[in-house]
Amino acid sequence: MGTKSPPASSRDAQKRMQVLRQRDNKFEMQLRSVLHRLGLRFRLHRRIIPDRTRTADIVLPTAKIAVFVDGCFWHSCPRHKSLPKANRDWWRTKLATNVARDRDSDRALRRSGWRVIRVWEHEKVELAARRILKAAHDFKRSSISN
């Protein structure tokens, strides 16, 4: 089952959240550029979890690799997570809901045979791209040996 986010704490908060780029942000664009340069071909923003509207940011369908580019604030990065001072309880619930949804997505994808790679926005783009490339190569190696 999906987890539902709490409603916005105020109209202003709702407006700010609506204008934030959820896809095609600077980090994601850089990552896609490096992946393409490394020879990987992929699909963008695909719904791959049955019965759910959630999308993976980058999908390598043949290798069954789902990549999620997670913002440190919105997904509660262990290194950079923070809570705003205003409406603290609301934000605590909102961010915990985001994390629970992420874990639910990971479980659903893994049950369906997908490999899930989560990339934090603070990561070096080249290193993140290498992790994804390695996963694609591992898949290729395992499919050749089977």
Number of domains: 1
> What fraction of the residues are assigned to beta strands by DSSP?
5-15%
* Rg estimate, integer Å: 16 Å
* Amount of helix: 40-55%
Chain-averaged pLDDT: 90
Instruction: Count every helix, treating DSSP H or I runs of 4 or more residues as helices.
Output: 4
The side-by-side strand order for the widest beta sheet comes to 1-2-3-4
Overall CATH architecture: 3-Layer(aba) Sandwich
Shape: globular
Could you name the ranges where pLDDT drops below 50 across 5 or more consecutive residues? none
* Helix/strand order, N-terminal first: HHEEEHEH
User: What is the terminal separation in angstroms?
Assistant: 34 Å
What is the total tally of β strands?
4
What does this structure look like?
With 146 residues, the protein is of the alpha+beta class. The chain contains 4 helices and 4 strands.
